[in-house]
Sequence to fold (100 residues):
Amino acid sequence: MGGVTGWCAGFLFQKVGKLAATAVGGGFLLLQIASHSGYVQIDWKRVEKDVNKAKRQIKKRANKAAPEINNIIEEATEFIKQNIVISSGFVGGFLLGLAS
Fold:
């Protein structure tokens, strides 16, 4: 059971990952072409300012969420220990799903 669900999850993860990478890469490529051709002008200083602001917000939220994340990790570790056969089957199936 764990192997089958792992394979399905791995296969879907692979397909969705490729689709997402293609969409993001294609969007970035189109934006660069439009910028280079003069259709779009990008204010890089503003982009840098916004990225730095987002980084600060992420760091602040990550520090607040750390105890909650540790609790989730402990619960997941305990679940894996109690269900080692299904968990190992899931991991093996997941890796096979990624490879196919």
